[in-house]
C-alpha cells in the first residue's frame, strides 16, 4: 500500500465512484442492526450477505467497497464476550469479505470495459461510534490526541494486516480525531494510505463546530491522507461544504452524504422518500463544486450508485 490508489484511479477517469450505505442496506435486506455493534454484528451472523452487498455495489458501478468494520472495535466486541483474538479475526474478516467480492466481480472479463480494478477501503469509524450513543455526531469526547491515537492503533493493526487498498476514516466529528489518525499513520503505519471524511452539522462546520475548511487545511501536510471530505451529512449542506474543502486543499475532495431522508433518533427510524435520479442530479452539483469522489452514506442503495455511475460515464464520452 505504498502508492496512492486514488491518484492512480483518478489519472484514468475524472471521477471516482464510491459505494453506498452498507448498514442500512443490510437492514433493507432483513438484518436486525438494533445493536451497539451495528453492521459489525452481521460479521458474526451473516458474512455472506455482507459479501453480496459489496458485490452488488461493484456491479452498480462503484470503484470501491467500504468494509463492515465501522463499528468494529475491541471494546465493542468485548462487551459481546469476544476476546481480543476473536475480535481481531472479525476485523480482518471484514476486509477479506470485500476482497472476495471484488475478486469475484473482477474475475468476469465483461466487467473490465472502461473500468479500473476496483478498490477495497477498510472502514475506520470514530471513537464515538464505539460508544454507540451518537457521539460521532457531537465529537466532544474529552480525550486528547494521544488517547485517540491509543484507541485507534490496535484496530488499524488488524485492518491493515488484511491488506485493504486503503483506509476509509469516516464520520469523524472533530479535528483532533483526524489529527490523531493522521499522526498515527505517519508514526506507526508509513505504508498505509487513507481518506478522512467528516460528519458536518451545517453548511460550514463539522459536528463539533470547527469550520470544515480549518480541518481540511490542517490535514494538507499529511501525505498519507490521500483524499478529504464529508460523509453522513444531509445533502442540502454538501455544495457549500465541498466548495469550502476544494478551496482549501490540494487533495481530492470526496463526498458521500445520506440519502436525504431524516432520521428520528427517538423511534430509530427514517422519514421521507429517497430518489435515485434526484441523488444523481445532486451529484452533478457536488462535482461542479469540486468533488472528485462521490458516493452515498446512510439509506443510499445500489440503485443510487448505479444512477451516479451512469451520469459519471457521460463525463468520459
Give a short synopsis of this structure.
This protein is of the alpha/beta class and 317 residues long.
Structure description:
With 317 residues, the chain is α/β, with parallel strands linked by helices. It has one domain (5-316): Alpha-Beta Barrel (TIM Barrel), CATH 3.20.20. Helix content is 45%, strand content 14%. It is built from 13 helices and 10 strands. It has helices at residues 5-12, 23-28, 40-45, 47-60, 74-79, 84-106, 127-131, 145-161, 175-188, 212-219, 238-246, 276-289, 302-313; strands at residues 16-17, 64-66, 119-124, 166-172, 194-198, 225-231, 253-256, 262-264, 269-271, 291-294. The strands form 2 sheets. It has an 8-stranded parallel β-sheet with strand order 1-10-7-6-5-4-3-2. A two-stranded antiparallel ribbon has the order 8-9. Helix 9 (175-188) links the parallel strand 4 (166-172) and strand 5. Helix 4 (47-60) runs parallel beside helix 13 (302-313) and helix 8 crosses helix 9 (175-188). The longest helix is centred in the N-terminal third of the chain and has 23 residues, at 84-106. The chain is globular, with a radius of gyration of 18 Å. The two termini are 31 Å apart. The model has no long low-confidence stretch (mean pLDDT 91).
Amino acid at each position: 500500500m505504498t502508492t496512492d490508489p486514488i491518484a492512480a484511479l483518478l489519472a484514468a477517469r475524472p471521477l471516482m465512484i464510491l459505494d453506498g450505505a452498507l448498514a442500512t442496506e443490510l437492514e433493507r435486506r432483513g438484518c436486525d442492526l438494533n445493536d451497539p455493534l451495528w453492521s459489525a454484528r452481521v460479521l458474526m451472523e451473516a458474512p455472506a450477505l455482507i459479501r453480496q452487498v459489496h458485490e452488488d455495489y461493484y456491479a452498480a458501478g462503484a470503484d470501491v467497497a467500504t468494509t463492515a468494520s465501522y463499528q468494529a472495535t475491541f471494546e465493542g466486541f468485548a462487551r459481546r464476550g469476544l476476546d481480543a483474538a476473536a475480535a481481531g479475526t472479525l476485523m480482518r474478516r471484514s476486509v477479506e469479505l470485500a476482497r472476495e467480492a471484488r475478486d469475484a466481480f473482477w474475475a468476469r472479463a465483461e466487467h473490465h470495459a472502461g473500468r479500473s480494478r476496483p478498490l477495497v477501503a477498510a472502514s475506520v469509524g470514530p471513537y464515538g461510534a464505539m460508544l454507540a450513543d451518537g457521539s460521532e455526531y457531537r465529537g466532544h469526547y474529552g480525550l486528547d490526541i494521544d488517547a485517540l491515537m491509543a484507541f485507534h492503533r490496535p484496530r488499524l493493526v488488524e485492518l491493515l494486516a488484511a491488506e485493504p487498498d486503503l483506509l476509509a476514516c469516516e464520520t469523524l466529528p472533530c479535528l483532533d480525531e483526524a489529527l490523531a489518525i493522521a499522526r498515527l499513520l505517519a508514526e506507526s503505519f508509513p505504508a498505509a494510505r487513507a481518506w478522512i471524511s467528516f460528519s458536518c452539522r451545517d453548511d460550514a462546520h463539522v459536528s463539533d463546530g470547527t469550520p470544515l475548511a480549518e480541518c481540511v487545511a490542517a490535514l494538507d501536510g499529511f501525505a498519507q491522507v490521500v483524499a478529504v471530505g464529508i460523509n453522513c451529512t444531509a445533502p442540502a449542506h454538501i455544495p457549500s461544504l465541498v466548495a469550502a474543502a476544494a478551496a482549501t486543499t490540494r487533495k481530492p475532495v470526496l463526498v458521500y452524504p445520506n440519502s436525504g431522508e431524516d432520521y428520528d433518533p427517538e423511534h430509530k427510524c427514517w422519514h421521507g422518500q429517497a430518489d435515485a435520479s434526484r441523488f444523481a442530479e445532486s451529484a452533478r452539483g457536488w462535482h461542479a463544486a469540486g468533488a472528485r469522489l462521490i458516493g452515498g452514506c446512510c439509506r443510499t442503495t445500489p440503485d443510487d450508485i448505479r444512477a451516479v455511475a451512469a451520469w459519471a460515464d457521460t463525463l468520459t464520452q
